[in-house]
Amino acid sequence: MERTFLMVKPDGVQRGLIGRIVSRFEDKGFKLVSGKLVQVSDEQAKHHYAEHEGKSFFGELVDFITSGPVFAMVWEGDDVIALSRIVIGKTKVTEALPGTIRGDFAAHTPFNLIHGSDSPESAEREIANFFEPGELLGYQKTIDSWI
Ligand code: RTP
Ligand code: MG
């Protein structure tokens, strides 16, 4: 069973979209194993976006993600990393299809509402950057056998 790190970015929190974004992943049948509102620190942001260090938009990205609270989550499911990125939609809003979170709600590229891990290695690093192991809850969802 795979885990991913998803995070409603400050624009999603400000626009009151936490509930509707969380619903998309509940609807898909994934299991929420942790979630909390976080004010991301500068250091935490730089660690989170380490892969983009040196790119022209790195500073902007760190400023944006630290500009207000985010809603950080860990979700579990088969192929949850790849599938949740399909639910999220393409990075560029001009390429994000209707039916995806970004396609339905995002209108400008930096403000694309949600982050999702792009690989098992990223997921592990990102989860550890935001959560203590004890915050990840293992529990049975009886509906799982029907999905
Ligand atoms: P994310 O990491 O936030 O889930 O987004 P992603 O995988 O779809 O996109 P990624 O390539 O990892 O880029 C991270 C975030 O950086 C901003 N970005 N700006 N100005 C630019 O050219 C540019 N490219 C990327 C976006 O906010 C993107 O979500
Ligand atoms: Mg990314």
Itemize the secondary structure elements and their pairings.
Blueprint: E1 2-8, H1 10-14, H2 18-28, E2 31-38, H3 42-48, H4 58-65, E3 70-77, H5 80-88, H6 101-105, E4 114-116, H7 120-130
Antiparallel strand pairs: 1-3, 1-4, 2-3
The structure holds ribavirin triphosphate and magnesium ion.
InterPro entries: NDK-like_dom, NDK-like_dom_sf, Nucleoside_diP_kinase, Nucleoside_diP_kinase_AS
Domain Nucleoside diphosphate kinase-like: 1-138
Pfam families: NDK
How many domains? 1
In CATH, the topology is named Alpha-Beta Plaits
State the helicity in percent bands.
25-40%
Counting DSSP E segments of at least 2 residues, the number of strands comes to 4
Assembly state of the chains shown: single chain
List low-confidence stretches. Answer: none
Indicate the overall shape: globular
Catalogue the ligands. Answer: ribavirin triphosphate, magnesium ion
Proportion of residues in β-strands = 15-25%
Number of helices: 7
The termini sit apart by 14 Å
Strand order of the largest sheet: 2-3-1-4
Classify the secondary structure makeup into a structural class: alpha+beta
Specify the CATH architecture: 2-Layer Sandwich
CATH superfamily: Nucleoside diphosphate kinase-like domain
Rg, nearest Å: 15 Å
Order of helices and strands: EHHEHHEHHEH
Largest sheet: 4 strands, antiparallel
Task: Report mean pLDDT, rounded to a whole number.
Answer: 96
| CATH class category | Alpha Beta
